[in-house]
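ok posting inputs for the phosphoric acid mono(formamide)ester job
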Amino acid sequence: MNLKGRNFLKMKDFSAEEIEYLIDLSAELKEKKKKGVLHDELRGKNIALIFEKTSTRTRCSFEVAAHDLGMGTTYLDPSGSQIGKKESIADTARVLGRMYEGIEYRGFGQDIVEELAEYAGVPVWNGLTNESHPTQMIADMLTVKEKLGKLKGVKFVYMGDARYNMGNSLMVTAAKLGMDFVACTSKKYFPDEELVAYARAEAEKSGGSVELTESVEQGCKDADVIYTDVWVSMGEPDEVWEERIKELKPYQVNRQALELAKDSVIFMHCLPAFHDLDTKIGKEIHEKFGLDEMEVTDEVFEGPHSVVFDEAENRMHSIKAVMYATLK
Ligand code: CP
Ligand code: NVA
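and the output
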């Protein structure tokens, strides 16, 4: 498998074999890290990290992974560069491409990261756009494989806003890998029809399936994985909270949802999560709407089925694999 020079922009661009290769490479690099085996094979290279939206996991993963691989990093924060204000994406790409061996971009439209890749001349990695979150996919599938021992045939249920980056990317990835993907949410939050058709065609090839349902009973029945994400994503206006709460509350991951699933079900979340009142937004929502927890209850988040921190750790190993595969 040779992915050298490739961009990592969205899951649609990768075959099942390529995705599986990246998952296995992540596991290999994880083992090396755990055993203390040095793997600084990309010494002398440098990468730029552009963040037009905030981040904890993705930024830290890129920085630690780059350091472990022997690379230098430059972090450009949401206000600390000329991008979009004084300089176009195409010009930025051509400047950074002269100085760095790879560029990470987190921001808004998918078209921005695609344009960056078109002009950069070096691999560009998507660290999250409104439409997709591909590095999260490798970490998530590595986590499923570690916990359940397989990917094919796994019933993977996504609850919440399935139209956004996480729902889109999980549906496409699961379909390619032969999983039985279910978007369990209100109709309004079903993924885009064209993308569903694409995922169904992929599922046909892999032996997987893609189902959309408004019924929690049907969706969560015998689930192997129940996954959720925040109801309001970065960059969305505060005004949407009220309707999201109303429309997505029935799809909160709680004890009842878990009871419908297999005993071995795992709960996953890309994080950050609103599961208690220990955040500023959590408190504001509580004051305005009276909710103590949102997309997942604290009981489930802290409970024995939750694998969210293993999943978060895997972001680092998998981002390392993506950089290694595209640069080595
Ligand atoms: N899951 C994820 O992308 O987290 P951050 O927003 O903290 O990077
Ligand atoms: N859907 C979320 C994912 C965060 C990792 C967002 O875009 O804010």
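notes: The two ends are 12 Å apart (CA to CA). Residues 16-35 form the longest helix (20 residues).
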